[in-house]
């Protein structure tokens, strides 16, 4: 065991005069590469990708699965099935998950619908809520009693 002059700690492994940890932190610099995905010159992270592309390709589904389980208590597969297309206009590029009764803990199939960002915003606006809920009712969704009474007050 030797004393590292940089961090002043006793370490076993040395790379020349300083410990391996200090060498990696202070002296060694990663080589920039052209990322296989984004084609930008960035530092190599793994498998020929920069750190951002590596995380998107290899960890994104795991992160999404965790978030859907944590926020909505549903599986990633169920979320993908529900948000395949907007139930109102059949838009399929970006689809949000909406709870009809506004209760995030009620994750029954009858309470969850996929809405495009436009219709999702409209259903949360007081002015257009009745129109969107009428369209959902026409598609066969049952509107909860509390939602109906809210609409009747308006």
Write the layout of secondary structure elements.
Layout: E1 2-3, E2 10-11, E3 14-15, E4 18-19, H1 20-27, E5 32-34, E6 41-43, H2 51-71, H3 76-82, E7 96-99, E8 112-115, H4 117-124, H5 129-138, H6 145-153
Antiparallel strand pairs: 1-2, 3-4, 5-6, 7-8
Please explain how this structure is put together.
The termini are far apart. It is elongated and about 75 Å long. The protein is an alpha+beta fold. The chain has 6 helices and 8 strands; from the N terminus they run ββββαββααββααα. Helix 4 packs across helix 5. The strands form 4 sheets. A two-stranded antiparallel sheet has the order 1-2. A hairpin with a 6-residue loop joins strand 1 (2-3) and strand 2.
Q: What is the string of SSEs from the N terminus onward? A: EEEEHEEHHEEHHH
Radius of gyration: 26 Å
Report the mean per-residue pLDDT as an integer. 86
- The total number of structural domains is 2
